[in-house]
Automatic annotation (TrEMBL), chains A, B:
GO terms for molecular function: metal ion binding; metallocarboxypeptidase activity. It is an enzyme of class 3 (hydrolase). The lineage of its organism: Bacteria, Bacillati, Bacillota, Bacilli, Lactobacillales. This is Metal-dependent carboxypeptidase. Pfam families: Peptidase_M32.
Amino acid sequence: MSQEQEFLAYLKEIALLNEAVGLAEWDSQTGMPEKGAEYRAEMSSYLAGIAFDKSTNETMRKYMEYFSDHPEELSDFGKQVFKKTKENYDLNNNIPADRFQEFSRLLSNAHSVWVTAREKQDFSIFEPILTDIIAMTKEFIPLWRKNEATDYDVLLNQYEPGITVEVLDNVFDQVKEGIMSIRKELEEKGTAPNTDFINRTVPKEIQKEFVTQVVEQLGYDFSRGRLDDTVHPFMLNLNRNDARITTRWDDNDFIMATLGVIHEAGHGMYEQNVDAKFDYTPLAGGTSMGIHESQSLFNEIIVGGSQAFWYKQFELLKQLTGDTFADISTEDFYKGLKLTQPSLVRIESDSLTYPLHIIIRYEIEKMLFNGDLEVKDLPKVWNDKYEEYLGIRPENDTEGVLQDVHWSGGSFGYFPSYALGYMYAAQLYHAMNQDINVEEVLASDDYSSIREWLTERIHQYGSSKKPNELIVGATGEELNPQYLIDYMRDLYFNVYDVKA
Amino acid sequence: MSQEQEFLAYLKEIALLNEAVGLAEWDSQTGMPEKGAEYRAEMSSYLAGIAFDKSTNETMRKYMEYFSDHPEELSDFGKQVFKKTKENYDLNNNIPADRFQEFSRLLSNAHSVWVTAREKQDFSIFEPILTDIIAMTKEFIPLWRKNEATDYDVLLNQYEPGITVEVLDNVFDQVKEGIMSIRKELEEKGTAPNTDFINRTVPKEIQKEFVTQVVEQLGYDFSRGRLDDTVHPFMLNLNRNDARITTRWDDNDFIMATLGVIHEAGHGMYEQNVDAKFDYTPLAGGTSMGIHESQSLFNEIIVGGSQAFWYKQFELLKQLTGDTFADISTEDFYKGLKLTQPSLVRIESDSLTYPLHIIIRYEIEKMLFNGDLEVKDLPKVWNDKYEEYLGIRPENDTEGVLQDVHWSGGSFGYFPSYALGYMYAAQLYHAMNQDINVEEVLASDDYSSIREWLTERIHQYGSSKKPNELIVGATGEELNPQYLIDYMRDLYFNVYDVKA
């Protein structure tokens, strides 16, 4: 075996261990017997431990050194794999092992503290441990730093390589202004749609039959995936032929699971269509949080917000639900799905106000790492921003600053990915429309050209290209938030009957 | 850490790897996306390979040598664990690695050859590879041998330590004679029960609700297990708190899944109640095939064949099935479940003729290894024995000698476990009745005393006691087939209205 072959075989071992950890995680969320939890933790941490050890040990260090010194021994493919592996290696190895373990311990406590604080609606319970998490993150930033301009840029870079505070400040200002102006016009000149029907009962089994047909049409392949029930929906890919999705159901809120499954199917379709040549390497799988979210949000918001799509799918829904929606016109049905209303809770918000929730979190995280916001002042700053941007103010910390799990997991710099994904999705939609008439396709019986367009430009590359490279390749330009603003204006002006 | 602690930590790693392999196997049978199969094989064989390597490598060899030389360094618990580990080690290591690999390759081909032969109803397709499997097994027997009297004893000993040809020859003669005599009396003096109702439609969901309640009452703990659908039913324990069972369903054969789930729940209850102190050692889990089968057959045949049990559970079944069985009396229902009829196929046979199927296989295996039966003569010998013992003759090899998967997997000496389990179950039932009135308990709302009796005498010990030790401890005597014969006579004379 050549050195490269040995290196790839070694990476495959790590990938197989991670696959086993993934299966264990999926199982523990979908139906592991409740009392198996402690034993499961032993197994998962053992396997994850071996994978982590192999990713950071002497053998891996030698590969990193050897190929840094002998790049000529690598094929082009080997070079791609080595580059990504080295990035991951540097991220893992720059933190001293004892500090990393300390951080892991802190995080595993933080989750239950956060849960308690939520129950008690009291941020002061969460404040001390959050302070520690932020302090340790600040300790690590210089160790992770390559050449990022600010501390917060270092964190952003971990989730969305290439995205900077400088870019986001500009982009988010535009988006914020755009949304505020759309909201103002809707309020002054628009007519809110009727949403009477939205809580009518659709039994879970019917919802499942409906959305299963829908996501199959969109291109989610059930012979290489499956749909299960969980408290928190997710997509988890064991490999490209086994990308599983989950959802939660509510008989009186059919649209929640419907859009939820369409969203997760977008993640799944991304993973299912990565080129098989990347199997068992760090290049298998989506390239960043933002690009992944662009695929799920393309499904959920662009497709799931399309009039042509619903004009078609409402027929199927009516076939499956008997008289439930017999008195609702197709137009009323579609428009009712797109009501916009300020919400205190991010995950309950609509597709117009959603980016404001992200921008609030971005501004606060930036202040925490690049400015001088103290942890104790978080609730007040949070509430003030909600009042300023959305016109509503949380009455307690649980519906305010304590609502998201992310910070208890040490994930700072992650939130912007959601908004980036949304902007990418709108930009991809614009570019796709240059090649195919998307609304026409969504009105037809064959959606395959949409999935193929995305596979050709995004999916197939796995992690072998950076987000910016993919977006420029697919759309001909860098991230441009104007597409999102235009998209939202057109959509909501239509729904609210506002003449532009 | 002491040497013993290090040794136990090492065994724990092997156990955790095997647990991951188990989960992967469960998943692949219960709902893995079909196209994930190839990737799954990679993962499973990688993890199983590490586990096997750790079980046979230099580190393990050193532990084996060290504690053989320094038994005084082991605690009593450590001695138990070491003894079992050493047994497994010797079994694995006495075969040269290259021959073992060759054997594995042979077996993995044999399965598909067997499937083809079944499809074509032609034993001659299977004959060459079966000849090779038997030849290699004969090659290994001297390497496995400790002090067994005959070649076939070596094989028996792997599945049911302590059981010999000498014992089985006697025991099976008694059982064969007992069954033949019962069958004769039933034929001459008995009245076969009415089974009209047996194929009435009970939808899968109702069957599931029914049998779930039943096995919960029997003591299968769903907070430490779960029930799924598979083509071939099984129990698979990842650990004592995660012992999963599966079944297949047929809307027009409710008794199949009902008794199937009750059977698998018996295996599951065994695993759920092994003492936690054996966790992560080779002593966690049932001690032998025969004892395991004694627990599943106690549930399926003894409990599931009890009049008191059905007098109670038929009420529940009627509650759940509306009018389906309204015209059937409780007595007719019970008796209808216990029709006996000679069958060509082992897994479709009833609880009276079942042991004859096993005895036929035992006699044939013994001839193959201790006598001079040639593989090519198998179909004729098989068919002759069916005609002699059961009065029916297979019309083709698929309903004859090709019906079982076992030989294609190299499992010779395994079949007797099924009959041993049945005899143990009847003997345990007899002993249990000295302490508690089992029929009275089965007529009541609280079955816990039955499960507790079995846990105290069988379950808790895991693999720390040999089969014979358990049976003597629980019943006060060695294996005695008379209990089974008496049990069958009483039961079938009652069902067939034969005056004794």
